[in-house]
Design brief:
The protein is α/β, with parallel strands linked by helices and about 425 residues long. It has 15 helices and 15 strands. The strands form 3 sheets. Strands 2, 3, 4, 5, 6, 7, 8, 9 and 14 form a 9-stranded mixed β-sheet that branches. Strands 10-11-15-13 form a 4-stranded antiparallel β-sheet, with helices on one face. Helix 8 (about 140-150) links the parallel strand 3 (about 135-140) and strand 4. The termini are far apart. The model has no long low-confidence stretch (mean pLDDT about 95). The structure holds pyridoxal-5'-phosphate. The site of pyridoxal-5'-phosphate has 14 residues, from helix 7. Pyridoxal-5'-phosphate binds near residues 231 and 270.
Length: about 425
């Protein structure tokens, strides 16, 4: 008997139907389609600095011991490779100058996954129901906005300045939500605490403390978590390291901190981690067990060996030297070529991978405006700032752009800014 095939309609889940395509995908396609274009859009790390030798050395060291090699090639455990989690905890405590007791942290609270995005997603999965609210800086990391909407939750943007999210504005937003009876829907506040994506700004210590106090004070019916995305902590080109937001969470019950080796070592290895409050460890791990029952074990062994062999810190120093020069090149070019244009300014970051610029009010930077196509015609690609704004709350500034200095060599950064200046002059 033969089974006749019928062309039945595909019935996707409501969740899949609700997922919007990341707008940046179209930009990446344009960059790939036109190799002449200088892309100041992609937030990739510098290809030339990727750690071939360190990675090879660490892998050789693992494979020199057949037992170690087999352990690395076997499945791991859901929360991650214990020696890596121990090493991450030690590094964090060292950075913070805290003991495990002072930080209310144990190795059980350190969970490792294939990138910090995966952990941000998992935390959302266990916290957000459809209709819940997440308060974010406006603008903020656009992939996280996609994560929030994937969960059916709503991101609301809070006023942000050159020092990050404004605590007073967050407090007011929460008061407004309480007045309109929506406080029970608020589950979390999300911030990128160091050299954020897209603005390159870091929250000063006093704001870090205020954010925790505000989350605690408004945790009336349930806890409002403060999700601290520390993806760019290591990419600091000037000044001293700041204590994390987690540092100030003296009860250890409010802040979720995520970190990653994607920026400081290699996104291809893709190992990230979260420091979770005790109440979230069980739910996150149970959920993770249903998805992957453990992230790629070889990559975790590799990063543990990289740390053990002391290969990370030297690499970070080299990265800092390279990126510092690139950032300076972009800022110098902007000072020379963009500053003469009226009503244009930009933030001068001291770390990260991005420069955020505000153009004249009359210029819309999105693909439907005039600047975007002119910039492409002049040979440069940027990311329109509108993509980084949450769909509600703080209004979108349509005249903004994000410029990345990580990928291009210095000569191209300068040529890219020259092309951008020409495109703006033709549009203004
Ligand atoms: C703010 C921010 N958080 C997280 C990530 C993702 O990092 P990972 O590779 O660890 O998933 C990125 C990547 O660009 C980022 O910009």
């Amino acid at each position: 008997m033969s089974i006749k095939s019928r062309s039945a309609a595909v019935q996707l889940s409501q969740r899949a139907l609700g997922i919007a395509q990341q707008p940046i995908a179209d930009l990446m396609a344009r960059a790939l389609a036109n190799p002449q274009l200088i892309s100041l859009a992609a937030g990739f790390v510098d290809q030339q600095t990727l750690p071939n030798e360190a990675t090879q050395g660490a892998l050789e060291s693992i494979f020199a011991d057949p037992q170690q090699a087999r352990a690395a090639l076997q499945y791991g455990t859901t929360p991650g490779y214990p020696p890596l989690r121990e090493a991450l905890l030690d590094r964090f405590l060292q950075c913070e100058r805290l003991t495990a007791e002072q930080a209310h942290l144990s190795v059980e609270q350190v969970v490792v996954a294939a990138g910090s995005n995966a952990l941000l997603h998992l935390v959302g999965e266990v916290l957000f129901d459809p209709g819940d609210i997440v308060l974010c800086a406006a603008p903020t990391y656009l992939v996280y906005l996609g994560t929030v909407s994937t969960h059916g939750a709503q991101a609301i943007g809070v006023t942000t300045d050159e020092h990050g999210i404004q605590p007073e504005a967050l407090d007011e937003q929460l008061a407004d939500l309480a007045r309109s009876g929506q406080l029970p829907r608020v589950k979390a506040v999300y911030v990128v605490s160091y050299f954020d994506n897209p603005c390159g700004v870091s929250l000063p210590a006093d704001r870090r403390i205020q954010l925790i106090e505000i989350c605690r004070r408004w945790s009336v019916e349930h806890r409002i978590y403060l999700i601290e995305d520390a993806a760019y902590r290591e990419l600091r080109y000037d000044g001293d390291d700041l204590p994390s937001i987690r540092h100030f969470d003296d009860a250890g019950d409010t802040v979720v901190t995520t970190g990653t080796f994607s920026k400081s070592f290699s996104p291809g290895i893709r190992v990230g981690w979260a420091l979770l409050p005790p109440a979230l460890v069980g739910p996150v791990c149970e959920h993770k067990a249903n998805i992957d029952f453990g992230s790629p074990n070889l990559m975790q062994h590799l990063m543990a060996r990289v740390l053990e062999m002391g290969l990370l810190d030297g690499h970070i120093e080299r990265l800092r030297d390279g990126y510092r020069t690139k950032l300076q090149t972009m800022l110098d070019a902007a000072d020379e070529l963009l500053a003469p244009i009226e009503e244009i300014d930009w933030i001068r970051p001291s770390g990260g991978l991005y420069v955020w610029a505000r153009l004249p009010e009359s210029i819309r930077t999105g693909p439907s405006g005039k600047l975007f196509d002119r910039a492409v015609a002049e040979g440069v690609l940027y990311v329109p700032g509108e993509y980084f704004y949450p769909p509600a709350g703080m209004p979108t500034a349509y005249n903004t752009i994000r410029l990345s200095f990580g990928v291009q060599p210095c000569e191209s950064i300068r040529l890219g800014i020259e092309a951008l200046a020409r495109a703006i002059e033709q549009t203004a």
